[in-house]
Design goal:
about 450 residues; alpha+beta; OB fold (Dihydrolipoamide Acetyltransferase, E2P); BirA Bifunctional Protein, domain 2; 3 domains; eight-stranded mixed beta sheet; 15 strands; binds 4-amino-1,4-dioxobutan-2-aminium adenosine-5'-monophosphate; binds magnesium ion
Length: about 450
């Protein structure tokens, strides 16, 4: 039985076996208390070890914070506050000790910076435990949301030849010896001789392949790792992050926004029900607004404005921004946060951005200046979702590709989707770690993924 199950359901007077790691030990006269946890819940199980137990002294000496232990005994009502039961141990096995002189997790509280230097151990702390359980609940909610609506989970490739976002922030995939790659007669690197016979990269987005799948299955979604070689050392950027990308045929930009809003509301609701204790913990220890924010998301509609309206609001704001505001700029995180956090005080969907700051695949609006893009901006986070209606008209798409100097030949299969059964379609990408930050109130994205990949950091 996991400790969560024991705490919730184990019957008084039943004999059970509990397994976990020691969180704390208290030695009293004639007996000791240990609290053990196994990551299944915030709360540990209190185990009483009686002084009459065989080898009592030797066992207690080994039971330091971090030691792995199995305890079998009797479930009794707990006289202490805050817990239903405790375990009176009849047999205790210590599997692996943790030397108090060298085990780094001794203090009750450590800084997140310090915990990042011990990424292999930090999962045992209260905060990381709560983060990982909420992260797991988010992933479950995401699959449940789409499965309930008949979406097919499409597994798009991690290795790809195309730069979906056109930002050139790709990690190359090769099996060349980099010190000595095969070269053409002219001396250039000869990718024809490389593993895939062409330059290949880690994907920045599964969208193009999701569009392929949507043209066969109508509604699909991807959920997997994505990679961006952007050298951004911020609290919201990772080089490897997870993205959820639904793609819907027979759908326009409004349907896209509706789905995004319904989707976020569903996830928040699910997490509040699945992880009430962890959410209480975040509200108490990390950010005392997370429960109010969750309630706000569940109860209120998101605001919706156009990019042009957003620029007007920013210009009227009397705030000095680091990046000056004028029509045509890409919204910076300071602008996004002002709009969502200060002005609307709730998530905000901004649509119809200038075509020059967005990707080639977005549908050109009739004004010829803007595209049918939509970003969901969240308080404290800024952009959490980016999406659009896609350009389904072959001639317009070809013109855009040419204008943006993109190699059309490489996208022949993507253009084919516009030749054979093209239809209005739309989708979006949700940054999974930004979602977990939004829900938990965690300030740094490095602390909501077990093994963060950022510039100069890939140790564990
Ligand atoms: O806005 P982005 O670049 O959109 C796309 O990739 C589209 N192809 C999605 C689609 O329409 N199917 O990225 C989507 C989201 C962002 O809103 C952000 O939440 C997250 O992915 N994101 C990152 N999260 C962490 N670290 C990074 N470096 C991120 N870059 C984007
Ligand atoms: Mg974006």
């Amino acid at each position: 039985m996991r400790i969560k199950e024991i705490l919730n359901t184990a019957a008084i007077n039943s004999t059970i076996t509990a397994e976990g790691w020691v969180k704390t030990k208290r030695e009293l006269k004639g007996f000791s208390f240990i609290e053990i946890s196994d990551g299944s819940t915030m709360n540990g199980l209190q185990v009483i070890i009686d002084g009459n137990l065989a080898d009592y002294e030797a066992i207690i000496k080994k039971l330091n914070t971090g030691a792995a232990v199995t305890a079998t005994g009797l479930v009794v009502e707990s006289p202490g506050k805050g817990q239903r039961i405790e375990l009176q141990a009849k047999a205790v096995t210590v599997h692996g000790e943790a030397d108090p002189e060298t085990y780094p997790l001794q203090k009750k509280r450590h800084s997140f910076e310090f915990l990042r230097t011990i990424g292999h151990l930090r999962g045992k702390t209260n905060t990381m435990g709560a983060v990982m359980r909420v992260r797991n609940a988010c992933a479950t909610a995401i699959h449940q949301f789409f499965q309930e609506r008949g979406f097919i989970w499409a597994h798009t490739p991690i290795i790809t030849a195309s730069d979906c976002e056109g930002a050139g922030e790709m990690f190359a995939v090769t099996n060349f010896d980099l010190a000595n790659p095969k070269r053409t007669k002219e001396g250039a690197v000869d990718y024809a001789e490389d593993f895939f016979g062409r330059p290949a990269y880690l994907t920045v987005s599964g969208q193009l392949e999701a569009e392929v799948m949507a043209m066969a299955f109508k509604d699909v979604y991807t959920f997997g790792p994505t990679f961006r070689a952007e050298n951004s050392n911020t609290s919201r950027h990772l080089a490897e992050f997870w993205m959820v990308e639904p793609e819907m045929a027979f759908c326009d930009i409004v349907g896209d926004q509706d789905l995004a809003e319904e989707f976020l509301r569903y996830i928040f609701k699910y997490v509040l029900e699945a992880c009430p204790e962890d959410m209480e913990f975040f509200n108490k220890r990390i950010d005392n607004s997370v429960l109010a924010t969750a309630q706000n998301i569940i109860e209120n509609e998101f605001a919706r404005i156009t990019y042009t309206e957003a620029i007007a609001l920013l210009e009227k704001s009397n705030k000095t921004f680091e990046f000056p505001v004028e029509w045509g700029i890409d919204l910076q995180s300071e602008h996004e946060r002002y709009l969502a956090e200060d002005l609307f005080k709730k998530p905000l969907i901004v649509s119809n951005y200038p075509k020059d700051i967005k990707a080639f695949y977005m549908r050109l609006n009739d004004d010829q200046k803007t595209v049918a893009a939509m970003d969901v901006l969240a308080p404290k986070i800024g952009e959490i979702i980016g999406g659009s209606q896609r350009e389904e008209r072959l001639d317009v798409l070809e013109r855009r590709i040419q204008e943006m100097n993109i190699e059309a030949a490489d996208l022949w299969w993507y253009l084919d989707l516009r030749r054979f059964g093209t239809v209005p379609h739309a989708g979006f990408g949700l940054g999974f770690e930004r979602l977990v930050q939004f829900i938990t109130g965690m300030g740094n994205i490095r602390d909501v993924i077990p093994f963060p990949r950022t510039p100069l950091n890939a140790e564990f």
